[in-house]
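in:
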């Protein structure tokens, strides 16, 4: 495991799921971590809403004040208010885009400024989604927002490189977290997912934390502005299984 001793990280969405798994890995690797989330009950550190610039700026300032600087930012906070394009709520659409895309923008903006101020460079990892590439029924706001995160990642990489800051994205497929818990009831949706995912199962949060932490670390020193799809081979199954015909 990479040694992150002496590194300071900010993780948004740290109270649950993928953010909690990233935080656990960073702690195990010796980093100091400022945890930011709206869930005050499950999180006893910084309570920050990533859609509010003041909260994100304050969380970055807290990391600098508490740990003496900022090196790494993980923009993980996210959720979706589903609704179809024709009949879903317009406020729900805006709120979801504001959270997944706007929240990531604020994390890059204020986190990037704090890293720049140290003068020693760093890395930012944004959690996008396979839905940046694959649409989700009722999830146009989420999918469009996550696609935006992928391009925002590239644009930020272009602009922040001069400060020694790399910016990359992770695109998870299906991960077993509270966000997706409603799908794991043994019913047809769960079975349909399993049939499409080559791994035959959803990921555990730590299986996303590993790639995310890799992108932030020295082993990824030459990786910049890219997207790492971590989906158990789901994206490539959008074709019927023709293996029987090929092998006949
Ligand atoms: N679980 C999946 O299958 C999956 C797939 C693709 C992408 N993702 C993405 O991964 C990220 C983490 O999701 P997860 O599955 O761990 O979900 P989760 O619900 O377990 O964790 C998300 C965390 O974000 C926090 N959060 C929500 N809104 C916030 C806000 N405005 N400010 C600060 N914190 C806020 C929540 O309180 C929660 O602790 C999200 O961006 C999600 O879109 C998840």
């Amino acid at each position: 495991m990479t040694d992150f001793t002496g590194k300071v990280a900010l993780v948004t969405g740290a109270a649950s799921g993928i953010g909690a798994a990233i935080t656990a890995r960073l702690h195990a690797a010796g980093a100091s971590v400022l945890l930011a989330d709206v869930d005050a009950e499950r999180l006893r550190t910084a309570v920050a809403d990533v859609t509010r610039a003041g909260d994100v700026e304050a969380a970055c300032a807290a990391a600098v004040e508490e740990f003496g600087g900022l090196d790494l930012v993980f923009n993980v906070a996210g959720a979706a208010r589903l609704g179809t394009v024709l009949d879903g709520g317009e406020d729900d659409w805006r709120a979801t885009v504001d959270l997944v895309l706007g929240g990531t923008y604020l994390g890059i903006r204020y986190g990037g400024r704090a890293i720049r101020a140290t003068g020693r460079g760093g890395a930012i990892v944004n959690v996008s989604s396979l839905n940046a590439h694959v649409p989700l029924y009722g999830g146009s706001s989420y999918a469009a927002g996550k696609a935006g995160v992928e391009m925002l990642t590239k644009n930020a990489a272009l602009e922040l490189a001069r400060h020694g800051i790399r910016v990359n994205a992770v695109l998870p497929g299906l991960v077993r977290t509270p966000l997706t818990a409603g799908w794991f009831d043994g019913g047809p949706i769960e079975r349909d997912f399993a049939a499409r995912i080559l791994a035959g199962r959803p990921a555990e949060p730590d299986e996303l934390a590993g790639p995310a932490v890799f992108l932030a670390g020295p082993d990824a020193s030459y990786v910049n502005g890219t997207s790492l799809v971590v989906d158990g081979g789901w994206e490539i199954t959008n074709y019927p299984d023709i293996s029987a015909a090929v092998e006949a």
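note: The pocket of nicotinamide-adenine-dinucleotide is lined by residues 12-13, 15-19, 37-39, 48-51, 76-79, 99, 103, 127, 129, 172, 174-175, 177-180 (CB under 6 Å).
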